[in-house]
Amino acid sequence: MLKPSESETHKRIRLAIVRLEKGQPKVVEKGRKVSVAAVAEEAGVSRALIHKDYPDLMERIRGNANKAIQRQRDEKHEKLKEERAKNRQLREKIVDLTEQRNELASKNATLELENRRLSAILESKNVRVFRGKLGE
């Protein structure tokens, strides 16, 4: 059975953890992650005391640290998925633009050949330019 002073200390540490989890600490700055140092400072006890006498609370603190790491990993994973999707879209766009460029290059080559053919006909001594009603 816990001594009255130990149960009070346990309660102070537990409440410190809860305040830090909710982002509403009274002693440490807001936004500080849940760690043994932050909990000890918030509860007004030493880190060694938490390590030595309160293994159940240590597990809860470690659990919060693991959750923060997991959350950070999940956020990075989501960003990676988004970047991969963007990359996939850009690769598809490159394929589309390459096809358009190739089609335009083919049309351009055809027009250049037609232009050379017509220029050759026009420069030929056997050809006379006919200017009909439209050309008058």
From TrEMBL:
<dbReference type="Pfam" id="PF19776">
    <property type="entry name" value="DUF6262"/>
</dbReference>
<feature type="coiled-coil region">
    <location>
        <begin position="66"/>
        <end position="117"/>
    </location>
</feature>
<dbReference type="InterPro" id="IPR046229">
    <property type="entry name" value="TnpC-like"/>
</dbReference>
<protein>
    <submittedName>
        <fullName>Uncharacterized protein</fullName>
    </submittedName>
</protein>
<keyword id="KW-0175">Coiled coil</keyword>
